[in-house]
Amino acid sequence: MAFVHLDVLCFYSLLICTAFSSVSSNAEIKVNPPQDFEIVDPGYLGYLCLQWQPPLFLDKFEECTIEYELKYRNIDSEDWKTIITKNLHYNDGFDLNKGVEAKIHTLLPPHCTNGSEVQSLWSEATYWKSPQGSQETKIQEMDCVYYNWQYLLCSWKPGMGVHFHISYQLFYWYDGLDHATQCPDYIKVDGQNIGCRFPHLEASDYKDFYICVNGSSDSHSIRPSYFIFQLQNIVKPLPPDYLSLTVKNSEEVNLKWSMPQGPIPAKCFIYEIEFTEDDTTWVTTTVENEIRIARISNESQQLCFLVRSKVNIYCSDDGIWSEWSDQQCWKDLSEEKRSLFSSRHILLTE
Ligand SMILES: *[C@@H]1O[C@H](CO)[C@@H](O)[C@H](O)[C@H]1NC(C)=O
Ligand SMILES: *[C@@H]1O[C@H](CO)[C@@H](O)[C@H](O)[C@H]1NC(C)=O
Ligand SMILES: *[C@@H]1O[C@H](CO)[C@@H](O)[C@H](O)[C@H]1NC(C)=O
Question: What SS3 class is residue 343?
Answer without folding.
Answer: helix
